Records
---
Amino acid sequence: MDQNPSAFVFHFDATYKTNKCGYPLFVCGISDVSRTFFPVAFFVSSQQTAPQYAMALTALQKVFEAVVGKDLTLQHFMGDADLAQYSAFGKHAQFLMCYFHVLQNVKKRMGTCPTASAAVHKYIYKMHFARSFGDLQSISAEAVMEWTRHPSLESFIPYFHSQWMASDMWRWQAYHTPPGMAVTNNPIESFNRIIKDSVTLRVRLSLGALINCMRLHDCCRFDDQMLSVTHHDHVFRPVVVQSNLFEKAV
């Protein structure tokens, strides 16, 4: 992260089902122009609210300042439709909305008419690849004209405008993201799957075991290739056993 802030996108996500307490595991890191994800820090929190996000960011800033000797500067932050994330990070960097989460939420609000669904996806796709704000406005106007022809989209149109065009979550178009950078949270979500598949083995660990395993994450190579279960057993299994025994003893 000790580089030009415009050279990376900062990602922050909460993943569940990693520990017996049901607490969210906060994972943060950066992705570069090759869309490679580099994990930076992990936090275990009892809640997923703005104060917890802010505390995690403050802790990260303090560690960065202590190690690098200067303030942490973020220019682009990629998140999902979580107002708590925006409240904590929005003032520190330009908040970029994950395109995949836009599609997910839109799908939940659309009608069941196949023709209407095709019209919605067509224009959302065009809006995502708009080249400028002016281009976006033009495509948006075309979309409204087309969508009004479908009675099943009567309630969808005001929803889409208020949620994805006129709110703080409106920056999901590709022109907001530096060329080559990720336009979704896929880099960090893929990393979260690696944690569950190769660190916790889809088992909810005790907090002590989880923290110890995450401290050893640099012993392995986290990239697009999944870690082998054999490697996991060799490195992490003793840590899990020792942590569980310690918790039982106390």
---
Amino acid sequence: MQTNIIHSDYEEDVHKVIGQAVSRVVASGKPLNKESILSLLRESEQQSVDGTREVYAVAIRKVSKEMD
């Protein structure tokens, strides 16, 4: 049985940070692909504090899993 990797409390925030990462990649002019999105998410995760770090960690897992 597959479990949902997004805790319901984080779902909206996870989608938000993924969307922001996509927007930043597009704005930068870099190719929009899995690696460029993950790179920005990882960078943001390293700079985040408190519960926000977990939101980025979940977003990274989601992008990694769904784009394989």
---
Amino acid sequence: MRAVELTKSHPAHTPTRVHVFQHDLTAPPSRPSLTSQLLAVPPEFGEPVQQFDIVSSIFVLSALAPRNHAKAVQTLISGTRAQLLAPGGSLLFRDYALHDEAQLRFHALPSASYATVPSLLSPQTASPATSSSPSLDEDTASFELNKPWYKRGDQTMTYFFTPAELQTLVDAACTELGVTVEGGVGVVERKMENRGEGWACTRRFVHGSWKRVA
């Protein structure tokens, strides 16, 4: 919500061209849908836009629990109808990739804030359950067992994807919605170096781009 307030208060914000609002992609049906919020534009905006040429998800999915990934991707494509992404429109993703430096640091440099609550939120079949492991019901566990899902020191979550996993999410959403897309996803690596402190690391991100063809 803070980001929305900052955007609206910025001198360059133009309400006639930009409609800014907060929305939970995992919200239940009882909450306002993404489509309804897109239609609730201020008077100065003019006619609401019902289809979009570009729908982007930039470090969004990784902030959600694994059990919510599929629903979030469906919502990004359809809203509450299979019409949010316009024919010919592009669906763009960028998020953290498996074995990114940020993930490796969870294991190499555990912080004091993880002393009682482990940073790895997903139960692992290879290790016995402990009293500090999250308590999950069977439906939740089926989504979250053996997943690279972590909690940061500020209590926010993060997740690290493989290209195949993200492609599967998009394919499943398109099948469910009767939408056809063309494109793909891959890993992009970026070398980071701090010569003053004498360290370097490799960041890994998944980049996906799909175009709706039907």
